[in-house]
Amino acid sequence: MKEVLTIQKQDVVCVSGSDHSANHRTVTLRRQPVGGLGLSIKGGAEHKVPVVISKIFKDQAADQTGMLFIGDAITQVNGINVESATHEEVVHLLRNAGDEVTITVQYLRDAPSFLKLPLGSPGPSSDHSSGASSPLFDSGLHLNGNSTNTAPSSPSSPIANEPKYEKRWLDALSVPLSMARISRYKAGTDKLRSNAFEVLALDGVSTGILQFYTAQESADWLRAMSTNISDLTLQNMKMANKCCCPSDQVIHMGWVNEKLEGIDSSQLYKFKFLALKGSSFYIFSTPPVSTLDWVRAEKIYNLCEVLFKIHKLWLADDCWLQANLYLGIHQDFDLEDQRPYCFSVMVGHGKSHYFNVELGSELAVWEKSFQRAIFLEVQRAGSKTYMCSWQGDSLCFTVDFALGFTCFDNKTKNVLWRFKFSQLKGSSDDGKTKVKLLFQNVDTKQIETKELEFQDLTAVLHCIHSFIAAKVASVDPVFIDSQSIARKYMYTN
């Protein structure tokens, strides 16, 4: 498990001899009868890129200097500045510079993309009799003769008393991964970057956009980064839990993107840090790093009164699975955004938070973690009682893990009715404050309707769902696992 992501860049450094600047090097080449100058070039001002050495041929003139490297940009030829020269102009200068050619080069730390393109045939321009050449292909035969023996990345040793240079990977940036977050989306948009992502540290340090050549390479790095950050988060959770009592342990925490309410144009989502701890579900703008930070959450909800709901999964066959779980709450969501791996957490008074994560594996972890945290809280609490009324009477409604449902008079405490969870056969509500609960009488087998009115009906319905689900899980945990939408589809794909 690595705590820091280190980004390196290639540079040319002087490793022995005179301490000349490796940034600009002036090198004298002696043209050989066979092989010429021993190098090939690409690029040119007509394409707004520098002329760059693209090949160095083993044991020929350029290789023998020990001072030239693939990726060196040519800035001067025999004292003539060629930084604004076209490809053909530089080729002409090198071809007609005589037997001894002095060039000044500067190593490009950010190698131009055309160096990474598959090398094609130079075509007719490679003919000695032709004056034309292509800046996107290697112009080498004009300069080298017919040799095709390419040198390795590190040239052979230079001549005695000359400085020796090597191309080395140097640390350019270090990004702490503890509590870091990953984003694949273009800033201010809802569009995925192509084979790229960004890592942002807790202290604000960013890697910048990390661009990869293939989708597979990008996916492999994304998974590796995500796994490493998750492992570090787990380590932080274990340290935090040493300071917490058994009933107030952190079950899970991590970064998500929250969809902003009422926003449908730019900046659709904002980073949020979620935590499931003890009896509560927390939403932070920044992660809690000390015990005092837990009281500074933007939102805190009781776990018995929230409902986790998966909305989207991105499958391997490039189609959407919209998993809208009907849980007795008559509420729908706008699913027109383009982000996969979405879930919502429905809270009291009919409100909800809509989130997105970067990977399907993260979605599966959040699903399992919410389930576990809610079940633990139900078992810890044992029961929840809510004030309610019906036809002017002040009542209390209790959901009890062992006994089921009980309704009693708030003043006299006399029990009016009691039913087990298994006796609840259905329910309906007006979407505001009133609900009808349909129970089956054990003796008569008849359905009895009980009507109640609550100040926060949504919280009560979520609580009923939490207790029933926890009860089912205690009796048949395999059934609960079989209902996992995220795990079922993410792990099989």
Annotate the secondary structure layout.
Blueprint: E1 4-16, E2 24-30, E3 39-44, E4 49-56, H1 61-65, E5 72-77, E6 80-81, H2 87-95, E7 100-107, H3 141-144, E8 164-176, E9 181-183, E10 196-200, E11 206-211, H4 215-241, E12 250-259, E13 269-277, E14 280-284, E15 299-302, E16 307-314, E17 320-322, E18 342-346, E19 352-356, H5 360-381, E20 383-390, E21 393-400, E22 404-409, E23 415-419, E24 424-429, E25 434-440, E26 447-453, H6 457-475, H7 477-482, H8 485-490
Antiparallel strand pairs: 1-8, 2-7, 3-4, 5-6, 5-7, 9-10, 10-11, 12-13, 12-19, 13-14, 14-15, 16-17, 16-18, 18-19, 20-21, 21-22, 22-23, 24-25, 25-26
What is the makeup of the main sheet? 8 strands, antiparallel
- Please estimate the helix content: 10-25%
Judging from the principal axes of the Cα atoms, what is the shape?
rod-shaped
Q: Which range does the strand content fall in? A: 35-45%
Strand-pairing-aware structural class: alpha+beta
Number of helices: 8
Q: Record the strand order, biggest sheet.
A: 15-14-13-12-19-18-16-17
Give the integer mean of the pLDDT values: 81
Rounded to an integer, what's the Rg over CA atoms? 34 Å
Distance between the termini: 26 Å
Give the low-pLDDT segments: 117-131, 145-160, 314-336, 489-493
β-strand number: 26
Walk me through the structure.
The protein has 493 residues and is α+β, with helices and mostly antiparallel strands. The chain has 8 helices and 26 strands. It has helices at residues 61-65, 87-95, 141-144, 215-241, 360-381, 457-475, 477-482, 485-490, and strands at 4-16, 24-30, 39-44, 49-56, 72-77, 80-81, 100-107, 164-176, 181-183, 196-200, 206-211, 250-259, 269-277, 280-284, 299-302, 307-314, 320-322, 342-346, 352-356, 383-390, 393-400, 404-409, 415-419, 424-429, 434-440, 447-453. The strands form 7 sheets. The protein has an 8-stranded antiparallel beta sheet with strand order 15-14-13-12-19-18-16-17. Helix 5 packs across helix 6. The radius of gyration is 34 Å and the shape is rod-shaped. Mean pLDDT is 81; it is low at 117-131, 145-160, 314-336 and 489-493.
